[in-house]
Amino acid sequence: MTKQKISSKVVRARNLAIYELEKFFDYIRTIDPQLEPNQAIVLAAFVLADLPNLFKQNPELVDRIKEIATNIKLGNRR
Fold first, then answer.
1. Quick check: 31 pLDDT over 90?
2. Structural contact between residues 61 and 54, judged by C-beta atoms closer than 8 angstroms
3. Phi, psi of 33, deg, nearest 5
4. Which stretches within the chain are classed as H helix?
């Protein structure tokens, strides 16, 4: 199996996603402080898995995602 080179842009994007996920884990523990860190991570996974349903129920969220995606493609990060 050959290894594919991962671009530095992808590495930076992954690092940003990991950073934001860790903040989300911490946020979940503010909702239920008795959760252990591993439990907060599992709960976050359930939330992430359910996001498509949330988007289907809230078209304004999809519109917001499209707006952010356009800004990212144009290089106008907020």
1. yes
2. yes
3. -60, -15
4. 8-31, 37-57, 59-74
